[in-house]
Amino acid sequence: MPLSIYMDVHIPLVITEGLRRREIDVLTSQEDGTAELDDEALLDRATILGRLLFTQDQDFLGLAASRQGSGIAFAGILFVHQQGASIGQIIDDIELIASCGEPDEFSNRVTYLPLRA
Questions:
Q1: In sequence order, what are the residues at sequence separation of 6 or more whose Cβ sits closer than 8 angstroms to the Cβ of residue 65?
Q2: Of 59, 43, 9, 50, nearest to 29 (Cα)?
Q3: What is residue 15's three-state secondary structure?
Q4: In the chain, what is the greatest distance between 2 CA atoms, to the nearest angstrom?
């Protein structure tokens, strides 16, 4: 079963459009009406929807660590540093994860992109 992705508010539209051209199920926080939510609520929303949260916001790394330490479940975070990879590489990596990954492989984890250097 393909994984679904939830895009943080600051993700460039070109990444969302590139994933959709590859038929990846992507929902942006803007489309979901959650663009003004704080990080914790946004991660909760992605988890409720069963979607991996894709972000470039380093604040989510601390939030994930806190949840991991407290045993608070979340669907998973895909993280790339803002200078960490090309747009094409990000799209390729997320497509691979969404197409081949299983939810339990990403649950309660942060996956750093790019997958390969």
A1: none
A2: 9
A3: helix
A4: 38
- Alpha-helix runs per DSSP H in 7-38: 13-21, 29-32
Question: 41, 114 in Cβ contact below 8 A?
Answer: no
Instruction: Report how far residue 54's alpha carbon sits from residue 64's, in angstroms, rounded to the nearest whole number.
Output: 13
Instruction: Give the H or E element holding residue 54.
Output: strand 52-55
- pTM exceeds 0.90, yes or no: yes
87 burial (CB, 10 Å; 0-12 / 13-18 / 19+) is: exposed
The tens digit of pLDDT for each residue in 13-65 reads 999 999 999 999 999 999 999 999 999 999 999 999 999 999 999 999 999 99
Q: Where are the alpha helices (DSSP H) in 1-117?
A: 13-21, 29-32, 39-49, 59-70, 87-100, 103-106
